[in-house]
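fold-stage: in
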Amino acid sequence: MLRTARCACGQASITLNADPVMHGVCHCGNCQRRTGSAFGISAYFDLAAVVAREGEMRTWAFHHAAQQHDQARHFCARCGTTLWWTISTLPDRIGVAGGCFADATGDQALPDPTYSVADDRRRGWLTLPAGWKVFTG
């Protein structure tokens, strides 16, 4: 099964041939700013699952002080959509913005997320499904 995540303008994409090994939401301020929303949806795959990367990308690299890791975000050079990222504490994984799989249906759609990170920063109006793992901080 192939899954392709695309940027908003469609010129950049990443294609993977596996299910995510981790899929959740994060409520930290960093993810809120990255998405312009109340949380970020992140699907993490083994790096070996990447079969193609297309389009002109730019990279923003920084040290995430609160999480104590280095991060490199790759975003579309045309529309600015953050498409994927790598994190120094997860060297064998690649994170892909869950919303970039918006057109995926059937077997290509992502499975439901299973966890919430920085849950102590979750907006009061947002509820989570029963059974999700919840991590604070």
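fold-stage: in (second)
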Amino acid sequence: MSSAILNVTFDCHDARLVAEFWGAVTGYKLDEMHDPGNHYWVASPPADAWPRLVFVTVPEKKAVKNRVHLDIVPRDRDQDGEVDRLVGLGATLVDDRRTLSPGGWVVLADPEGNEFCAEAV
């Protein structure tokens, strides 16, 4: 027996802003959800695949480094081009490890400071 990951959930100060950023990064379709007492955004991969990205508004702001983060890899460009695209979407460069050891990746942060890594193909 095992479990599958259904969602990766982000607590956000502005869930719509972060959802739109990650929707643009991944190309996932965004849906605004209105359940009783629970308003959130879902970014879904094609064909209802999992995991989805879920963005929930919470009152507190991010205070410390993420304990879990996403690693992304470009589908149709090189790593340098993808880092440029991500920064253009609103990401912030945190640590460029492309030429360092250990390295090969770039640490970025989304508009609310959630860290993620851009890997090379």
